[in-house]
Specification:
This protein is α+β, with helices and mostly antiparallel strands. The protein is about 50% helix and about 25% strand.
């Protein structure tokens, strides 16, 4: 019975190691494929925007064309080549039954595995196809995933003069992404560990019960080490994903970033009523001529960092800064009923922050603020650096409220005044001539009603 127990323990160690190896390589290949597909999707969105830019050519031979950038397929292939350089022995392939003429030689299935993978994934595009096989004389894991035709790619493939197929539809399987990983190094390392385990178990077998206790401890240790490797690798991939998402959220509102990741290429929304606030630091241009550039940037960063905290506190969306001007909007991308009140609270707090800053740094800066309420269109623009921006007459009027305002005051339009006069103290400024608008009646926001 003791010998049977020893044999069972040895077999279980071998089986568990093999199972964990298969699980790890499958998970690694799946994560690599998802990461590559995600990179291609984001790049495809960039290419879609780049088509509208004069002087940019999107082509497979972009390296020899001035202003050329690669098509998504070429980008994916070169990304795969880079991954292969960073991971010797690993292979990343993109192939199809309909390769473009420029990839005719290497773009189609090249062996029995690739033919079977193509057939299987054409029938079950949401599945995975993989095998543990000999590849180029080495034990390897070959993993294949369907490359699905996205909405942004259909028109290009159907209209491109070199396209071998002209009737593509969204959801068609246009090709296969394959990742091949050699297993000999992993197997060698695992076998070396198993060999040590077998020798240890054989030596401990003469010790009876004591030996069995040591064997169980060794088995547990080996299992935990293999599981730890899988967990560490999964955690690394999750960390990289979090970094990418964090970078996107620093550029765009969370709701807009989510829509981009879901494949929305053109984002433009109309809002019936939002409140826009423009602020400008009076005298900052003159100050910039008197202090060093480094000190100027530090000073402006301190002020705008406090403004950013205020926008978070009041739930406003920072749109942009232009020089020493600061722009925020209330009531988007998620509409809210109290958008005007939130903007007014922000404006009053901004005046207090400037006063605190002057006391702490012995400056005499003041801020001029303009506020207006009305309908706007908001959306994402840009081909290389995304920006969430606003358009509409309401935006222009808010800017005029600031530029035609009085230093140290908060000037609001009649529309904003009508929404807030029951809650705040105003001083009527009267009719002023506003560039591009003619005469307008405006008010100065003084403070909150008790």
């Amino acid at each position: 019975m003791f010998c049977i127990g020893i044999i069972a323990g040895l077999w279980n160690t071998y089986r568990l190691s093999s199972k964990l190896i298969k699980s790890q390589v499958l998970q690694n290949a799946s994560h690599y494929a998802e990461t590559i597909q995600a990179a291609r999707t984001l790049y495809s969105e960039v290419v879609t925007r780049a088509k509208t830019v004069e002087g940019i050519s999107i082509t497979h031979d972009y390296k020899i064309i001035e202003g050329g950038i690669p098509i998504p397929a070429t980008f994916l292939i070169e990304l795969g080549q880079y991954i292969q350089l960073e991971n010797p022995g690993m292979s990343v392939r993109l192939y199809s039954n309909y390769p473009f003429p420029s990839r005719q030689a290497e773009g189609g299935p090249r062996d029995n595995f690739e033919v079977k993978a193509m057939r299987y994934l054409e029938k079950k595009p949401n599945s995975e196809f993989y095998r543990f096989v000999k590849f180029q004389g080495r034990p390897s894991f070959r993993y294949a995933q369907a490359d699905i035709m996205k909405p942004s790619c259909v028109s290009c493939h159907n209209n491109h003069p070199d396209s071998p197929k002209k009737d593509w539809k969204v959801g068609d399987v246009r090709g296969v992404l394959e990742i091949t990983q050699p297993l000999d190094r992993i197997i060698k390392t695992t076998n070396a560990g198993l060999r040590d385990t077998f020798l240890t178990l054989a030596g401990l077998s003469v010790l009876g019960i004591i030996g069995m206790t040591l064997i169980i401890s060794k088995l547990r240790h080996t299992s935990k080490e293999l599981e730890k490797r899988v967990v560490e690798r999964t955690a690394e991939l999750a960390t990289e994903k979090e970094k990418s998402e964090s970078l996107l959220l620093n550029i765009l509102p969370e709701q807009i970033a989510q829509r981009l990741k879901q494949g929305h290429h053109q984002i433009a929304d109309g809002f019936a009523e939002v409140t826009i606030l423009f602020a400008d630091i009076v005298g900052f241009t003159q100050l910039s001529e008197k202090i060093l550039p480094e000190d100027l940037v530090i000073l402006l960063n301190k002020i705008f960092s406090e403004f950013d905290k205020l926008s978070d506190r009041h739930g406003l969306e920072k749109i942009k800064t232009i020089g020493d001007a600061y722009m925020v909007a209330s009531g988007l991308p998620i509409p809210r009923a109290d958008h005007a009140k939130a903007a007014a609270e922000m404006a009053l707090d901004m005046q207090q922050e400037i006063s605190k800053f002057n006391l702490q740094h012995n400056f005499e800066l003041c801020i001029r603020i303009g506020i207006n309420t009305g309908p706007v269109v908001a959306g994402v623009i840009g081909t290389k650096k995304y920006i969430y921006d606003l358009w509409g007459d309401a935006v222009n009027t808010a800017s005029r409220m600031e530029s035609h305002g009085i230093p140290g005051t908060i000037q609001v339009s009649t529309k904003t005044y009508d929404l807030l006069h029951n809650q705040y103290i105003f001083q009527e400024r009267g009719a002023i001539v506003v560039k591009g608008k003619g005469e307008m009646k405006t008010y100065l926001l003084i403070g909150r009603k008790v």
